[in-house]
Design goal:
The structure holds two protein chains of two kinds.
Chain A (H helix, E strand, L loop, with lengths): L4 H24 L13 H26 L6 H32 L8 H20 L5 H32 L8 H5 L5 H53 L3
Helix pairs in contact in A: 1-7, 2-3, 2-5, 2-7, 3-4, 3-5, 3-7, 4-5
Chain B lengths: L1 H32 L6 H4 L1 H22 L6 H7 L4 H30 L7 H26 L5 H12 L1 H15 L6 H28 L3
Helix pairs in contact in B: 1-3, 1-5, 3-5, 3-6, 3-8, 5-6, 5-9, 6-7, 6-8, 6-9, 8-9
Classes of the chains: A mainly alpha, B mainly alpha.
Chain lengths: 244, 216
Amino acid sequence: MRSDVTTRVLGTLSIAALALLAVMALVVTPADVNQLDAVRLIYIHVPLATVMYAAFGVTAVASVLYLLPRTRARKWDVLAGAAAEIGVVFTGLVLVTGSIWGRTTWGVWWTWDARLTTTAVLFVLFLGYLALRRVGGDPDTQARRNSIAALAAGIDLPIVHKSVEWWRTLHQKSSLLDEETFLHPHIHGSMYWTVMLGIGAFLLLFAWLLIHRYRLAKLEDRIEDEDLERALAERRAEALTGSP
Amino acid sequence: MAGKDLRIELRSRVATNQVGPFALLVLILFAFALDPDRGVLGQAAAGLFWVAVLFCALLAIQRSFAVESTDGARDNLRLSGLDPAGIFLGKAAAVAAELAALEVILGTGVVVLYNRSLHGPVLLVVTCVLATIGLAAAGTLYGALAAGLRVRETLLPLLLLPVVAPVLLAATRASEAALGTGSGDGWAWVRLLGVFAVIYVAFGVVAFGPLLEESS
């Protein structure tokens, strides 16, 4: 299970794409009229958010596949966990970059906007999921427990989103943030393509990280199994030679 | 299922003796934290009420699964031949009944201690019923998930509280409307609570079978 051609190509590609993104984002694209250089955060913030959704999507799908009797296999649980770990890291990054962006453009680190609040709940939900994954126990029961927890958290998300959205619109409209114009500014050609490049680059990075994390988890499993087998074999050998 | 439900109730009466007073204590602590003279307490009454309910729900759920952690009661439950869905509904109903009793105590406490009057009793009752069902269903699901784990005391709040965040939000807004402190349509929130309750009851019915098997 050493790194093979595919992952090496993926890794090289994602690093190259990220380098290109850095050049495009920092040098080629113009600064915004209103937001000045702060607008450059869009090239990392939006791609990070995309990866966040992709990662939790993978977790949800893998959990469903594990729970369906026909496709039940340990690998789905391992994949769900790997994706969730990456997802949580990226959610953290989304919150951090968003916060920095908010500070420079709205003047506050945090506002109780629907999207922000939902993302924060999402972050905590999956932190809980990761904590649950770490409690240990029999692998099969653990995998089943993980999958159910992932789904229970997953179906909560639309409700959280809906409730938070209502909550904010029932109260006064946030004056700081007009979502429509803020999140869909009049994007220039080069800016648009840079955002797209960013999304592509970060998705490549995600795929690369995911494959590696998945392999690592598989290897961890194997170590556990082989350790047990070796210990058993040793014990048996002891018994045969009759040593004390 | 109904019989089992009642038996749990009987067993849990011990817990209610502690959880009920705890709920009142929380209300008094809130009064210390938020100066009652400045009207903050009255304004926030609905929110404080539901936060207190949430904390008590955690205790009730821990308790509901703690009674089965001893003497292999969990295995006996599985051997009893009851349908897992039935066990889930029974346990959830027991938790819901406990919570409903608590809400009555807490509600009285809020009216008396925080000096609130009721504007929409029907709205308040419907809100309480739906929120309680949702809380009990989600709580029972996660309670079963965390039961038997060494770290359950700390893990359960971490897992459950974010999931029931919409319940807190919706129930608080609806109660505010019922208490006359909030603006907006309380019934829209009630619908959201209904959706939450339906989804988690349905999910629990489906997922409880595989969850119970795991305890072996």
